[in-house]
Amino acid sequence: MTLRELLTKNRERVVEKWRQGIIDTYPADGREFLRQQDDRFANPIGYVVHEETDLLFDCLVNDMDPEATRSSLDKLIRIRAVQDFLPSEAVSFVLLLKPIIRELLAEEIKTHALCDELQSTEDAIDMMQLMALDCYTLCRDRISEIKVNDARRSTAKLIERLNARLAESPASNSCNNADKDNDR
User: Fold this and answer.
1) Are 23 and 51 in contact (CB under 8 A)?
2) Are 72 and 52 in contact (CB under 8 A)?
3) Distance in angstroms (rounded) separating the CA atoms of residues 72 and 61
4) What's the CA gap between 128 and 95, in Å, rounded?
């Protein structure tokens, strides 16, 4: 038996434990809601965690298609990038998969001498972690860009309003009239 076959056979156990680990990274007061509510619109975070962990696990077991992996990670990271997570916390959910695999499949890995395959799988998880960090960085850069653009727009509108008020004020008009008289 290969590790791939073993992971496929134990897919539901591994993915469910991984989901629980991801949900446990959220504040205690929201965990039960994330676990119990599976409606896409009532619980978008729980829904994305559920859907994307399935896809990411499949990517891992099936030699990780980079685009599919990046897409799934991006969906999870977009949510975590706007929440109160440190960067390491936002992407750490990927690494939760390593101890889960080791814990749930330890006996079979030992029995079938799958240590080399386990190392390859853990290397793939490390690559997934790096991809998650890239996604996080891009999301945070985009958020910063949006904030800067918003500040620029706000400043430009404020300057427009100030200029409009100056143009309308009587003191400004009398200064303009005085300038016109001096020009004659």
Assistant:
1) no
2) yes
3) 15
4) 9
SS3 state at 27: coil
Q: How far is CA 3 from CA 16, 75, 101, in A?
A: 18, 27, 10
Token code pair at residue 68:
């599919």
For the record, the structure tokens of 13 come out as: 């156990």
Q: What is the pLDDT of residues 34-46, one digit of tens each?
A: 888 778 899 999 9
How far apart (Å, rounded) are the C-alpha atoms in residues 53 and 34? 14
User: CB–CB of 91/100 below 8 Å?
Assistant: no
pLDDT at 173 over 70: no
Identify which of 130, 31, 124 has the alpha carbon closest to the alpha carbon of residue 73: 130
**Whole-angstrom Cα distance, residue 64 to residue 111?**
26
**For residue 39, which phi and psi values (nearest 5 degrees)?**
-75, 130
Residue 2 has pLDDT above 70, yes or no: yes
Q: What is the DSSP string of 50-113?
A: HHHHHHHHHHHHTT--HHHHHHHHHHHHHHHHTTT--HHHHHGGGTTHHHHHHHHHHHHHHHTT
